[in-house]
Amino acid sequence: MTDTALPAKIRSRRRREAIAPLDFTRRRWLKAVLLANFIFLYFPIVALIAFSFNNSKRNITWQGFTFDYYKKAFNNTALHDAFMNTITIASTSTLVSTILGTMLGLILHRYKFPGKGPFDSWIHLPIVIPEVCLGVAMLAFFTMFKIPLGLFTVTVSHIAFSIPFVAVVIRSRMSGFDPALEEASQDLGASEWQTFWGVTFPYMIPGVVAGALLALTLSLDDFVITFFTTGPGSTTFPIKIYSMVRFSVTPEVNAASTVLIVLTLTLTILAMWIQSRSDKKAKTDG
Amino acid sequence: MQDWRRNKLVFSILLIPPTAWLVIFFTIPLAVVWVYSFGQRGPLGETIITFSFANYLRTMEWVNLYITLKSLWIATVTTTICLAMGFPLAMGVAFAPPRYKNLLLLLVILPFWTNLLIRTYAWIAVLRTNGYVNFFLEWVWSGLDWVFGGMLGQFQPLEMLYNQGAVIVGLVYVNLPFMVLPLYATLEKLDKSYLEASLDLGASQWRTLFSVTVPLALPGIFTGGLLSFILALGTYLTPDLLGGTDSIMIGNLIAQQFGPARDWAFGSAISFILMYVTFACLWVKAVLAGREGAVNY
């Protein structure tokens, strides 16, 4: 029986009933703890976003609402260039890492092969090793082979650390796939190629989209690895924000940051939504 | 699952491109750093491979050992605070009525989806001398000053930024979700009849918490603890932005060697030590997970 099924009068009476022993969320101290935790989690970000609209340089007392700092950030050519670089890098990285990551995810899902255990651990390494270690390794590698640091090196590094994440998403999507479908398709005379595009791939699509969105967010958000592989003319948006932050705290930085927050939040929520929708569909289908 | 020999062509078409990419742009760079770690800094700042352990021995020198020990200390403190804050938070989410559960969980994860750099930057605005915390304290102070008739004098803003405290606050902020999610996962599937049995048999809420709930939640505590420990230990950005000269951590030491100090051989050695420590933690986590029943995070 749910609360919502009860008429309002009874519900309000229930609220005053004694708190059940395990009904911790109705205890005042736990509510206070939860509230304190959420204030800790949200205050800095909410303040940052709010003060990007504040009509004051000092950034501490509210002086009225304005879009001025967004205009200023938009007209800042360096910031503008950095944004374009980020878009170029992120879109290339997303395209390549989605294709390669999908292939890798399929391999891990479909095949038994000797050395699969160690191979699997090796694939997860880029996810677990500290970002600084990966960043300096890329720097050492590019310098050793005399590859000039720039858009190319940043993109290549982003692809490398995004592939495993895409592979993990694809693999978890494929774990719900019924291999009998592929067998049926081949029994009915389709070739392996036709089976892949006609049966397997349509099932994978939500995973591919979610993986691509994850790769896109990873690339848009990355700071540490980009910091070590970036060269003249390839400053990305986070790197530009970093250099502005080092300089001073201004509403303009807040405005630029808010743009990035909104962008990544939208993409992440979109990915979550696609995944949960396809999970639900998988449940009702099978 | 298919055997790879059934269709070797398809298998190799799928296998070779991503594997080649990861070998060239991940494994070879790590191998380069590994070889560099046995090298030496040349007169022009270049790296000469000398096959010596000198760099590893140098990490044992007090200046460097001090930074390593301090990083371990900061990571431990961060993990402890994360646990102290995360446990009640995870309890709150796990024991919430079902219709609020997903919303609360989403609220815990949401800040984690915003950019790391921006989340760290946000704390500068909160903690700096003319930041929000000092602004609030000044307001309280002037109120008290008015009550006491000006006996307190001028408000002195607190120096809360560019020190170890600020680094710890920043790290707790960034790592809290990594602690809460595994804790939530264990508390959520915990059989609540054990708690009821304990309470029915006369144990107090506190006794039940420490003798029943916490022992049952140990796998989650270990997983969350190790995750936030690893992440705090390998951090670079947080001490870089929120820390001062005294709060350099291993990550910053590595970056320094590859940047201004230009001693790549030494930087490579520290980098590998940090990776070995990370792997050791992950191994402990895997062993514990195998024994206690895995938590999926």
Task: Report on this structure.
With 286 residues, chain A is mostly helical. Chain A has one domain: MetI-like (MetI-like fold). In chain A, helix 4 packs parallel to helix 7 and helix 9 runs antiparallel to helix 12. The longest helix of chain A has 35 residues. Chain A starts with 7 loop residues before the first helix and ends with a helix. The mean pLDDT of chain B is 89. In chain B, 72% of the residues lie in helices and 3% in strands. In chain B, a hairpin with a 5-residue loop joins strand 2 and strand 3. Chain B has a single domain, classed as MetI-like (MetI-like fold), CATH 1.10.3720.10. In chain B, strands 2-3 form a two-stranded antiparallel ribbon. By secondary structure, chain B is mainly α.
Key words describing this protein structure:
heterodimer; A: 286 residues; mainly alpha; MetI-like fold; B: 297 residues; two-stranded antiparallel ribbon; 72% helix; globular
What is the structure about, briefly put?
Chain A is mainly α and 286 residues long.
* Helix share, percent of chain A: over 70%
| Overall number of domains of chain A | 1
Succession of helices and strands of chain B: EHEEHHHHHHHHHHHH
Give the name of the CATH superfamily of chain A: MetI-like
Secondary-structure element series of chain A: HHHHEHHHHHHHH
* Ends apart, CA distance between termini of chain B: 25 Å
**Would you tell me the structural class of the helices and strands of chain A?**
mainly alpha
Record field, number of beta strands of chain B: 3
CATH topology type of chain B: MetI-like fold
Report the major sheet of chain A: none
**Beta-strand fraction estimate of chain B:** under 5%
Task: Tell me the domain tally of chain B.
Answer: 1
Q: How many β-strand stretches of chain A?
A: 1
The first-level CATH class of chain B is given as Mainly Alpha
Can you count the helices of chain B? 13
CATH architecture of chain A: Orthogonal Bundle
Determine the mean pLDDT of chain B.
89
Percent strand of chain A equals under 5%
How is the largest sheet of chain B built, in terms of strand order?
Answer: 2-3
Rg calculated over all Cα atoms of chain B: 25 Å
Kindly report the oligomeric state of this protein: heterodimer
